[in-house]
Amino acid sequence: MPRETSLVTIIGEDSYKKLRSSRCLLVGAGGIGSELLKDIILMEFGEIHIVDLDTIDLSNLNRQFLFRQKDIKQPKSTTAVKAVQHFNNSKLVPYQGNVMDISTFPLHWFEQFDIIFNALDNLAARRYVNKISQFLSLPLIESGTAGFDGYMQPIIPGKTECFECTKKETPKTFPVCTIRSTPSQPIHCIVWAKNFLFNQLFASETSGNEDDNDQDWGTDDAEEIKRIKQETNELYELQKIIISRDASRIPEILNKLFIQDINKLLAIENLWKTRTKPVPLSDSQINTPTKTAQSASNSVGTIQEQISNFINITQKLMDRYPKEQNHIEFDKDDADTLEFVATAANIRSHIFNIPMKSVFDIKQIAGNIIPAIATTNAIVAGASSLISLRVLNLLKYAPTTKYTDLNMAFTAKASNLSQNRYLSNPKLAPPNKNCPVCSKVCRGVIKLSSDCLNKMKLSDFVVLIREKYSYPQDISLLDASNQRLLFDYDFEDLNDRTLSEINLGNGSIILFSDEEGDTMIRKAIELFLDVDDELPCNTCSLPDVEVPLIKANNSPSKNEEEEKNEKGADVVATTNSHGKDGIVILDDDEGEITIDAEPINGSKKRPVDTEISEAPSNKRTKLVNEPTNSDIVELD
Ligand SMILES: Nc1ncnc2c1ncn2[C@@H]1O[C@H](COP(=O)(O)OP(=O)(O)OP(=O)(O)O)[C@@H](O)[C@H]1O
Ligand SMILES: [Zn+2]
């Protein structure tokens, strides 16, 4: 029986026709993405566009079944499309690129789709696609897995909670300075050995010039930053010893890492005012290692044994280095790389008076990669593809009358909800009233031609928005992408500049807020600037969005019911999120708006530094703290 016949039996002739004329976007062609692609091809979506920025890696092959050994280093999106052609009946369009790249994927490009499937592996891209889905009111099926755990969440903008409605855990990270200068826990030394030392010696291309002035070192101490940079550059010299394959020079590596570098650290007195000073190895320790090193993986051994192990394992890796094209990747299952990281970490721990760890323990910590499991990916992809039929209202026996009747899916283990069942399928929650992305502001898309961007003055732009949505005189306009104040009642310095002169452009998001009303105010509106060269000259079309009047924050007349509604969203007893006991704890930044994870004070006037050259006023003060977590060492 042809596939079409079965599909028509399940969803009916009309729905099948609709499905055949539907276009969907699949973001990510990795673990979940490969499974999903197979599923939605079997469901016979009319068009499937697939975006992935990456190429195929050996480590993907155990679970990304569309890829083979010969595909390594090929783009995932195009390779996936080739792999499914023999059972494909849809139009497939692959793209190799970053979905967040606004020049390749402008907002109007997303408008062609009926639904988006997220099959991503990072928070930033998930947040970005969630925002796009909100701006365009495009349904999104969000998903993710980690080991045996996974989830799938349909998001219907305006009707159900979005990806940002619940707080997300961020991966554990450490400041560079802790890792490179002042470790205090075994994990700091393990991260140093694995992400820094091992990579520099065996995995990186020699450049010999770490001079990244934008790097966030996690410290302002100029002396310490100088030392960190110098230390990195000197490591490239050590790589030359590896390349020389001269084992008699390994003590030079020990000397540099564990005597000279530690002495340089000791010379920065500021570091040791409140910390125990490290004690470098001695020359005799380096030059008289024990003959037989201990090898049991579950014991620690002495520092002398660690030094012997370090020498032996470095020699082994030295021999492998040219055979592996001068590039060895750390892999916790590669005993040599693990041993190197373990001994280097332990010697550093010993120096900093931190307990040493067994190779077994270090394997757990350094290999902190939760294994990706093909079955979990398949289950989550299956749930995503099935729910898309209900999101698009194509199931004749289960019509979608209310979006909050739809279900999400997540593993019980992830939520601690039940030990007895693997998957839970609670109904979707409505949008969280305090969610900065989907609820706190109205939103829409301004369609602009480039010439309009280059010609329109800020003052005219402000008037246009004010009149369109009936805002009062006293408003503020913020560039939400950079958190810059562009206009308010006592900051009009930029009025005569054009939009492009104040660095607004394709993809900028602006926030327009009523600053006047004491009791009632017009709700703030967030507008996405979609610059489209195809548009006729002088186009600046504002979206038809209803921007309601709401009670002001400082209004004394808020009634009890409203207060309850607002507070109710802070702690929502629900079964569909990932908190313990089904309690979702949301951001406690009450009264604050969060855009891209940076809080913006909700108080009335908030001048911000602009990034425009010839900054026109000195009355502006910096409002938002610089992000501090940009360049920090991160475990896998
Ligand atoms: N911004 C982005 N734009 C496009 N594709 C992205 C973006 N961010 C991540 N991806 C893709 O999403 C996919 C996620 O798949 P998955 O979680 O299986 O990761 P992986 O890199 O394939 O495997 P692993 O990380 O487990 O080795 C990857 O193929 C990745 O390239
Ligand atoms: Zn939300």
Automatic annotation (TrEMBL):
Domain of life: Eukaryota
Residue ranges constituting the THIF-type NAD/FAD binding fold domain according to the UniProt record: 8-437
Gene3D superfamilies for the chain: Ubiquitin activating enzymes (Uba3). Chain: B, domain 2 (1.10.10.520), Ubiquitin-activating enzyme E1, inactive adenylation domain, subdomain 1 (3.50.50.80), Ubiquitin-like 2 activating enzyme e1b. Chain: B, domain 3 (3.10.290.20)
Keyword Metal-binding: yes
Pathway annotation from the record: Protein modification; protein sumoylation
InterPro entries in the record: ThiF/MoeB/HesA, ThiF_NAD_FAD-bd, Ub-E1_IAD_1, Ub_act_enz_dom_a_sf, Uba2, UBA_E1_SCCH, Ubiquitin-activating_enz, UBQ-activ_enz_E1_Cys_AS
Keywords carried by this UniProt record: ATP-binding, Metal-binding, Nucleotide-binding, Ubl conjugation pathway, Zinc
Region described as Disordered: spans on this chain: 581-636
Compositionally biased intervals (Acidic residues): 586-595
Binding site for Zn(2+): C162, C165, C435, C438
Pfam family, any one: ThiF
Keyword Zinc: yes
Residues binding ATP, per UniProt: 28-33, 52, 60-63, 76, 121-126
Single GO term (MF): SUMO activating enzyme activity
GO (cellular component) term, any one: SUMO activating enzyme complex
BP-aspect Gene Ontology terms: protein sumoylation
Active site feature: C177
Quaternary structure annotation from Swiss-Prot or TrEMBL: Heterodimer.
Family note: Belongs to the ubiquitin-activating E1 family.
Protein known as: Ubiquitin-activating enzyme E1-like
